[in-house]
């Protein structure tokens, strides 16, 4: 894929055909739908990897900083209730264990 020109349909098609040929030793016409799907998935993976590498080279060149952020939104709803429940049970078990251990 050409990173400077964006997505090129013909290059992508050739990549899929190449993947079918090398992964399954078949032409695109002989490949099953599952094999074509896998070839497309690998072609997409290759595009993502190329873009990821280019992005990280750019980060290194510019000495970009990284900010990590964890939002409470990840602990919404049922997951949050489950975590609180486990925490409360752990405290209760801890109290029970301490009272048993001290007797």
The gyration radius over C-alpha positions equals: 26 Å
Name the assembly state.
Answer: single chain
General form:
flat
Q: Between the first and last Cα atoms, what is the distance in angstroms?
A: 71 Å
| Number of structural units classed as domains | 2
The main pleated sheet reads as:
none
Secondary-structure blueprint of this entry?
Layout: H1 9-24, H2 33-62, H3 77-102
Helix pairs in contact: 1-2
Keywords:
103 residues; mainly alpha
Could you please describe the fold and organization of this structure?
- With 103 residues, the chain is mostly helical.
- It folds into 2 domains: 9-62; 72-102.
- The N and C termini lie far apart (71 Å).
- The protein is flat, with a radius of gyration of 26 Å.
- The mean pLDDT is 81.
- Helix 1 (9-24) packs across helix 2 (33-62).
- It is 70% helix and 0% strand.
Summarize the structure.
With 103 residues, the chain is mostly helical.
């Amino acid at each position: 894929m050409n990173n400077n020109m964006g997505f090129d349909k013909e290059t992508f098609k050739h990549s899929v055909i190449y993947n079918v040929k090398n992964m399954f030793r078949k032409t695109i016409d002989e490949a099953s739908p599952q094999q074509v799907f896998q070839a497309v998935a690998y072609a997409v993976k290759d595009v993502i990897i190329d873009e990821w590498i280019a992005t990280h080279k750019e980060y290194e060149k510019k000495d970009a900083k990284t900010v990590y952020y964890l939002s409470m939104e990840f602990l919404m709803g049922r997951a949050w209730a489950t975590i609180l429940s486990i925490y409360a049970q752990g405290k209760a078990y801890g109290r029970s264990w301490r009272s048993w251990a001290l007797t």
